[in-house]
Amino acid sequence: MPSPDPRLTGETVELLQTLIRNACVNDGTAASGQEERNVAVLDDVLAEVPREHFEPLPGRRSVVATVEGRDPDAPTILLMGHTDVVPVSPDDWREDPFGGELIDGEVWGRGAVDMLNLTTSMAVAVRELANRPEPPRSTIRFLGVADEEAGGTWGAGWLTEHAWESVASDYVLTESGGMPFDTPDGRRVVMATAEKGIGWRKLVVHGTPGHGSMPYGADNALVTAAEVVRRLSTYLPAARLDDRWRAWVRTLPVDDALRTALLDPDRIGAALAELDPKLSRYCHAVTHTTFSPNVVRGGNKTNIVPDRVELEVDIRTVPGVADAEVEAMLHEAIGPELMGRVDIEDLVTRREASSSPTDTPMYDLLRRRAEAVNPGAEVMPWTIVGGTDASFFRARGVPSYGAGMFSPAVSLPEFALRFHGHDERIDVDSLGLSTQLWLDLADGLAD
Ligand SMILES: [Zn+2]
Q1: Number of domains in the chain
Q2: Do residues 120 and 67 share a domain?
Q3: Ligand 1 geometric centre to CA of 219 (Å)
Q4: 423 CA distance to ligand 1 middle (Å)
Q5: Burial of 240 per CB tally in 10 Å (0-12, 13-18, 19+)
Q6: What is the mean pLDDT of residues 281-287?
Q7: Is residue 265 predicted with pLDDT exceeding 50?
Q8: What's the pLDDT tens digit per position in 92-106?
């Protein structure tokens, strides 16, 4: 297997430093992010590669660069990296979160693992492919995409709806894969093949207004809402256990009795309580559709019994549960007598849970590359409990994987700590490994 080229690794390091310093922080407001600044830098890197630009909102600019392959029968591969990052709490960092400094072999800053590391390695690899005398076998598209951190509405969501011909591909590769971790059973490397759906709802709880001086027997919307919240917080819908879960359970440091219980849909609820809390949160989320009541608004005067309270509930569906099933679950959780006083409203565009098959030539190639970098390791598919832009492409039937290649310095637990966390950083070795991965894939589907 070719090893990373130090020249290209150095270019990825420099490009990553520049994008971190641009601080394209997307806090969800229209004026934030201004990803056009990172796109301008990527345009310089990809100056010789044919490009298209899309800017559905001022500043929310995305770029597509395409290197035509030499084999019309080879699949087209889209390398998709977002250019925005999430906000920071600078006081909690040991280094400047937007300094992009290279310290002891690590590049520091917001976006170093989510996901400017991959975005920059993709851009450098695509430029390299374009410069080679012989084109790659596959047509390779690079998409530097805006707005992922606010749900992708003005990035991948918009592009798949309004510019499909420019991004259409046979495979999509994006974030959340290639992290190794060690288990009692040997090393594993994860590749993301699935993610949960987003089914946020607003619950409007109704009551009858009255004077706060006479609460006895009042139809108080806030009291009803409190009971709705309590029921949601204790609701445990049926578990969905799939092959990804079974592979995951094999990696957990637990005894056989607990392992068996975690694989039993009737016993998993009790078994989760026996896990370390750091593990149980993910294990619960990846096996259950979850309901987290996170916002409440209601009441307007201390002496008035409120007749209306709004609750915003973060609902995440597991693959295999359609969004249309969410309402029935809400009815089950809240119960028929209380549901009579609750209206359900949509909050955002919904995203169905999604998954991609592992019996594809691309997954096989990713597996082989990860095994080559991690001899003796087992590569396993896993489910992302948050959302990524992969879902927009899976919704159109395109197999999409969270890929990349990380050194053991960014093991899966370490990755999880740095992802949206303090002291986000990436080692230079990982940057080299990811850059090399994209180069290998461009010709790899020749076998
Ligand atoms: Zn990301």
Answers
A1: 2
A2: yes
A3: 45
A4: 16
A5: middle
A6: 95
A7: yes
A8: 999 999 999 999 999
